[in-house]
Amino acid sequence: MVSQTTPSATTSQQKAGIPPILIIGVLFFIFGFVTWLNSVLIPYLKMACELNNLESYLVAGAFYISYFVMAIPSGALLKYTGFKKGMALGLLVMAVGALVFIPAANTRVYSLFLLGLFIQGTGLALLQTASNPYITVLGPAESAARRISIMGICNKVAGAIAPLVLGAITLKGADELKAKLLTMTATQRAEALSELSSRVIMPYVIMIVVLLILTVWVYRSPLPEIDTEHEDEALLAANSNKRSVFQFPHLLLGVLALFLYVGVEVMAGDTIISYGVSQGISLATARFFSTITLSCMIVGYLVGIVCIPRYFTQDKALCFSAILGVVFALLAVFTQGMASVLFISLLGLANSLMWPALWPLALNGLGRFTKIGSSLLIMGIAGGAILPLIYGALADAYDTRSAYLIMVPAYLFIGYYAAFGYKIGKRTTGLYKA
């Protein structure tokens, strides 16, 4: 296994008495809050900036593509800064991204909103490149999914709260405004949309303040460093002939599985409000659907905490989740109205244990390649940029319901990885422990 902590770090932690898992839990809460604001920003900016489906899903595109662009630089930066300073820097970059929202809202320029989202995603890429492997190796490998599930609850509780908070501010009276816009003159329409656009300023000013406070807190915290550059004797012997992270096929397949997983998770959470509206449901009601999806994910995380590894292993959890994903996606496509929307929400349950299971399965046995392996997995988060855009294009070309069929092959590949893919290249090493 990867070494856990340096002696000096452990001593510092004991003196301060603050469990590292608590600090990382706060960071995962921030991940969730900022990330799942997108589910409200998509219908909000679609109205404020007068966009079609494909254009509106550039919100997810700009946010998640930053992970692909910045993951490798983030991994390189972490080698210089270490985990703790890297996390603090990530929070600071997120605050800069939130700052861009102020001129974007004042001018109602969509490209500025997208720039702010990209910068926030850049900060999150750095933050997640540090925190995900941190929580993975902060204890036994066989219970890593359980620890990540605890972090997932922090993430998804924040994700469930975020759309309620931002939706109550930005989408207040949106149904009435939508109807009035049809009868307004060009001047009146511009004024009404400018007022709508300005609603986002105060929430993002508050976000800037909170992120700056957290930056200072994490920088000054007793969070211990974890040494991922050295390996124990078993891993050193097994990896003695490895010169590149690309010599670990189970990791590369894991990156693709995570790419597809994030894509379907973002589709389930970020498209559901707009999808509900397309099914004839008012925005006043539809704005709660993302919270339902995130609540389903919380239920799944609780199951993971209780059951992994006591009742079933990480790979079995991933396999069962993939099967559920196929079933719920097909049911969503072949039903209509509220029933179809609820099946999309239930995908939150199917998706919940995928992230916590994929990380330890993909990182297992990497040793000194853990940080660069983590960077590749973070690049996989770009699935949240690509799949929703494909969905948006299909929704414009066909309809919003049948476009969800693209989820099915994604879940099938994740199921393949859970059953076979995570073993490839590792069958004779003896390193994997389910």
TrEMBL record:
Major facilitator superfamily (MFS) profile domain ranges (all copies): 20-427
Record's bilayer topology term: Multi-pass membrane protein
Transmembrane segments: 21-45, 57-78, 87-104, 110-127, 148-171, 201-219, 251-268, 288-308, 317-335, 341-363, 375-395, 401-419
Keyword set includes Protease: no
Major subcellular site: membrane
Keywords (A to Z) from UniProt: Cell membrane, Membrane, Transmembrane, Transmembrane helix
Family: Belongs to the major facilitator superfamily. FHS transporter (TC 2.A.1.7) family.
Protein name stated in the entry: Sugar MFS transporter
Record organism: Mucilaginibacter mali
